[in-house]
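Question: Hello, beginner here. Any chance you could explain the protein record under this note? Any guidance would be welcome.
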Amino acid sequence: MQVSTLTRYPVKSMLGQQVEQAAVGATGLEYDRRYGLIDAETGYVATAKHPRLWRRLLQYSSVHDGGSVRVIAPDGHERAVDDPALADELSADLGRAVTVADARPAGSSVERPDPEEVLAQGVEAEVEAPTLEISQGSEGDTFVDHSPIHLITTATLDHLGIEALRYRPNLVITSDDAEPFAENGWVGRELTVGDVVLRVVLPTPRCSVPTLEHGDLPRAPKAVTPLMRENRVEVPGFGVLPCAGAYAQVMRGGTLSVGDVLRL
């Protein structure tokens, strides 16, 4: 197996940045989910998991190129993430007041409607949106959904026929002989990538995010519907859910590069 792409997402729920190499520590790839937007009214972290409120975030990109993190708006103009004007600009565009946070407050939660409800009723419907505490598998203060690393195989992606970026993984892994949803069977095992050791801890439950517009990509309900039929699996602590990919914790940090060989 090999690492075919590495991607980090400096601001949660914005489009990310593919890199050839990345430092990896206990909190994941450097600058991954380093920043998040906080809804000033509710205190929840803004995420496109609640598409009625936040799907517009998937039209923004965030990058880090050796200086500060920059946010690129849909019209192409950029602001540094620490520019005081950014929060006002985002608030105006999103229609809700937000602040930009560089550390996740303890107990931070998101609103996460059932993706089946969103598909059935539409992205503008006022569906029930249960709250979920994020970063339960991470010791850091970044804005990851659960654990520091999210990975998926090309076998799973090819089977689904869906672009990798819709699932927002850090690592896409190419294997000559992996079966679709092979990641399910990796839970509890370790992946060694050069000097980095990852421990796979959970299958990745899918929300409605993969079905939404991502930049120029249109909506894609089929990014989740096959999972509802083919890959509902037990996610410890969360129930039986449609999944694709897996979450992993970092047992030993180091440097990851595209082309690195993985051993399970």
User: Anything to note?
Assistant: The chain is about 15% helix and 35% strand. The domain at 2-263 is CATH 2.40.33.20 (M1 Pyruvate Kinase; Domain 3). The first strand starts at residue 2 and ends at 8.
